[in-house]
Amino acid sequence: xxxxxxxxxxxxxxxxxxxxxxARGVALLGANAQGKSNFLEAVYYPVVFRSxxxxxxxxxxTFGGPGFHVEAAVxxxxxxxxxxxxxxxxxxxxKRIAVDEVESERxxxxxxxxxxxxxxPADLGLASGAAPERRHYLDRLLSLSDxxxxxxxxxxxxxLAQRNSALRQGRPELAWAFDRPLAEAGAAVVTARGAWxxxxxxxxxxxxxxxxxxxxxxxxxxxxxxxxxxxxxxPALHDAREADRTRGMTTVGPHRDDLTLRIGGRxxxxxxxxxxxxxxxxxxxxxxxxTLREARGTEPGLLLDDVFAELDRERQRRLAVxxxxxxxxxxxxxAPRPDELPPGLELEVWRMAxxxxxxx
Length: 360
Fold this sequence. Notes:
By secondary structure, this protein is of the alpha/beta class. Helix content is about 40%, strand content about 20%.
């Protein structure tokens, strides 16, 4: 899978342009605040149709403008090419998503035509941060790898939101009415996460070792595995009713689960060094790539935002070997200066200044 061209209009500080993209990818150089990360954000937007920074669409649009438009032409597998567009209009705050000019009523109907994995400096939080960061990672990769998971997750979140709203309003009987849809969707979510976690644990330990770390690392899914059975939800939710009423929220379900990362048997987020945390984040990103490749039968793109900064040349080389992959992986990476690119990099170099791209 490769991105053939990208069109961006009204997107952050990027100048309106159509970019024809090399099959291998691009190394984008430029000083801070020139638009390098914004370019990667535009490349990634048609993957899940939202900012990888978590920004609302109105924040993505150029300040004071009418909205933004992104178009991604994708060369898929076996001739399954597509042109994916997303247009957000400030007037009415409406977003239109289309595939080959056919508008999609739901985001889920357009997800998956362009697949990419993004690695940001903030992704060290996957190893060092709180549980919601790892749940978001898990939900994203499983949603992109399996449309059925995305549908189940959407149903679960909708039922959870309605149940929690009723609890906050002091209407417990209304809240209990959402137990059945919560259980049906939640069981599918728990089952899919558990099925992913077993193979992922072996991959995590192997990748950690490949990155030169000496202590053995482990990954485990922390949650109530029995909730993979829909019939287990009724007693679990019933037993939690008093706690749910008191706290005004649902206290049972995969929205409270986590991925537990350990090194040498100790929690990585508490005892890991900065280097170990970085290695763990890289390992999780490599697992994300492998999960998407195996599930969708194609190589996803890789977006790297300034991830080689502050590394010595040997660490840059080792990291590049694991991340950049072979010729089949299209890579987009940013760096402020040429000396922060990994040695032996075989990517076309572009430069970014004031939101405009030029060929080096």
